[in-house]
Amino acid sequence: MKVSLIDSPVANVANIARALRTAGAEVEITSDPIAIANAQKLVLPGVGSFIAAMQWLTENGIDHAIRDAVKRGASLLGVCVGHQLLFDLSHEMGSTPGLGLVKGEVHKFGGILPVPQIGWNRVAANGPLFDGVENGVFYFVNSYAAMNAPDEIARADYGGPFTAAVQRERVFGVQFHPEKSSAAGLRVLRNFIAWM
Amino acid sequence: MDVIPSLDLLGGNVVRLLRGDFANVTTYGDPETVLDSLDVLVGSRLHIVDLEASRSGHPVETNIVRRLATRGLRIQAGGGIRSLDHARTWIDAGAEKVVIGTVAADAPEVLRTIVDDLGADRVIAAIDIRDGVVRVGGWERDAKSSLAEVLRRVEELGIGEALITDISKDGAMRGPSFALYRSLRTNLRIIASGGVSAISDVVSLGRIANVSGCVIGRALLDRRIDLAEAKARVATTNAIPERVIPCLDVRDGRVVKGVNFVDVRDAGDPVECAMRYEAEGADELVILDISATDANRATALDTVRRVSESLFIPLTVGGGVRTIEDFRALLRAGADRVAINTAALRNPQLIADCAREFGVQAVVLSCDAKRTGDHFEAMVRSGKESSGVDAVEWCRRAEELGTGEILLTSVDRDGTNSGYDIELLRAVTSVVKIGVIASGGAGNVEHFRDAIEAGGARAVLAASLFHDRKLSIGDVKQFLSSEGIPVR
């Protein structure tokens, strides 16, 4: 199964590409809006700043390309900041609109625990993305997260509950790093690749 | 897990006695002011000890209890309660429960009278222990009954809670007696008391079966523990697993292992080792390039590249990182995080610069600490040379500058298999909020537990033990899990 991995300069694309290949995908790394708009399966990675990532998408016309692809029936997986980009809005340093493909907003962790969260966290999950995941512990690096999103399919707790994954029809997002989450992460990628 | 503030009262003031000595008193002021400063919430439990009553047998601080009870605090009052009348005085003043010590251990008939009159749910049995023996009468003499007998008797009376204090730990700020609480065989809900001096102590006690609460005195008053933070940590303790991290010390592209950083021997191919470790359940991998001369840096980058290509867990790399460019090169080669050591001690700004450039999550402070007199000193050049900087203070400062985690190695213990340096770990984990990875000295599964439980480490690292297959990562995680410590 071919997966188009969006080649964002604000993402660790090589690691995700390798994990997708290990999970059985044929990976095309691209930042071409036409190729993205025509893709069947898209992965949108991202690390660091939501604002920088969103800016790169809009400046290169990739935001429209992603929306077009989803409209045509492509499935999409957002990873980490890529997951946050799927939402309506992020409150990282002011308010920045996201792609609006899933409902909800992204907020900074408000609890008393140190931010960013760096490390493994237990996730309570259901739905096809998590089929066969025996041990729902995934690796997170984040200061921001969606909280109680309407399309939530997985939840974790870091000084308060947050949304660890979402699904709205063909659009998926995971706040954790599947490419750093060992067997559980590879299983999630395999499920995304196999999902029709 | 109930986190219960404890106030010792003497002459209307909150005080502390060092190891029960009335000649060694620290005064903290009136109870209301103290409670306000601690942010004790309405509806919280509060433990009160009337020290004068514990000496004379006559309650004197009833007015204080009356005042505090009207603030909506659920008070458990104790101190020298040897009769039903005395116990009633506290209940009449508004206490929710009485804490009965000497009588519970030595006068079962009096305890029965109190339980019959007040109800078992209003009584907490207080049992003070020194070297496994129950002590009574203000810790002055041994009780007539053994610990097991006292526990059984208390349980038979229908009392639900026992407050168990390890006298040798009380007020000493060195941590509670985890082994004591783990060894108790009882259906009572145990409230641990004595020595709780770091938030990690509260978390660790909560992981021991039967322990349902802990009493904190001096550590709250001295601001070593923030109540709200302790409660938040306890609430997430089972969601966030503690990590087991194998370390590959690499020189010239080969895995080697040194004893006390000096004798070095070959232990294999880094890629093979890394893949084996991930399969065994490693939560992360650390590579330390121990040669790291300029000439060998290219080799190290190649090793990192090869390892990262076969790994699906986070990879931290350290050794010889001097500049932002070194840092960037390692991230580009596939490291998720980079550890800085000597260069940061020489130029602390490097931590802040790297945090700004790559994010706090990418920065790990590697601190090699060596005991020097009564403190620990941060060492440079692979633990060979002293920097003159206090290691604990350095870790605290590095957190401020922007490090995501601290890899704390005991130079004294490294390669000895004699256990992590718990004192060093406690000293650092009690002054920083970020995670500390314990390193240096692991020799058996108990050592890993102790580093997390008593040392407050959020991750445990070992090299030779895993290389030599004396233990597998699976063995360690299985043991930690059996001890109530969450693992992935």
Arithmetic mean of pLDDT of chain B:
92
Category by helix and strand content of chain A? alpha/beta
Cα radius of gyration of chain A in angstroms: 15 Å
What is the number of independent domains of chain A?
Answer: 1
Note the run of SSEs of chain A as H and E.
EHEHEHHEHEEEEEEEEEEH
State the helix count of chain B: 21
Helix run count of chain A: 6
Using the coordinates above, name the CATH class of chain A.
Alpha Beta
Largest interface: A-B, 32 and 31 residues
Number of strands of chain A: 14
Indicate how many domains the architecture of chain B comprises: 2
> Ranges of chain A with pLDDT <50 over ≥5 residues?
none
Q: Rg of chain B to the nearest angstrom? A: 26 Å
For the sheet with most strands of chain B, the description reads:
8 strands, parallel, barrel
* Percentage of residues in strands of chain B: 25-35%
- CATH 4th-level superfamily of the largest domain in chain B: Aldolase class I
Oligomeric state: heterodimer
And the CATH topology of chain A? Answer: Rossmann fold
Strand content of chain A: 25-35%
On the 0-100 scale, what is the average pLDDT of chain A?
Answer: 94
Helix residue percentage of chain A: 25-40%
Topology (SSEs and partners):
The complex is a heterodimer of chains A (about 200) and B (about 500).
Chain A: E1 2-6, H1 13-22, E2 26-30, H2 33-37, E3 41-44, H3 50-59, H4 62-72, E4 75-79, H5 81-84, E5 89-90, E6 96-97, E7 105-108, E8 117-122, E9 124-125, E10 137-142, E11 144-146, E12 152-157, E13 161-168, E14 171-174, H6 182-194
Parallel strand pairs in A: 1-2, 1-3, 3-4, 4-14, 5-7
Antiparallel strand pairs in A: 5-6, 7-11, 8-10, 9-12, 12-13, 13-14
Chain B: E1 2-10, E2 13-18, E3 21-29, H1 31-38, E4 45-50, H2 51-56, H3 62-69, E5 74-78, H4 84-93, E6 97-100, H5 102-106, H6 108-118, E7 123-130, E8 133-136, E9 141-142, H7 147-156, E10 161-166, H8 178-183, E11 189-193, H9 199-206, E12 211-216, H10 218-221, H11 227-236, E13 243-251, E14 254-259, E15 263-268, H12 270-280, E16 285-289, H13 297-308, E17 315-318, H14 324-333, E18 337-340, H15 342-346, H16 349-358, E19 363-372, E20 375-380, E21 385-390, H17 391-401, E22 405-410, H18 422-429, E23 435-439, H19 445-453, E24 459-462, H20 464-467, H21 473-482
Parallel strand pairs in B: 1-4, 1-12, 4-5, 5-6, 6-7, 7-10, 10-11, 11-12, 13-16, 13-24, 16-17, 17-18, 18-19, 19-22, 22-23, 23-24
Antiparallel strand pairs in B: 1-2, 2-3, 7-8, 8-9, 13-14, 14-15, 19-20, 20-21
Helix pairs in contact in B: 4-6, 9-11, 19-21
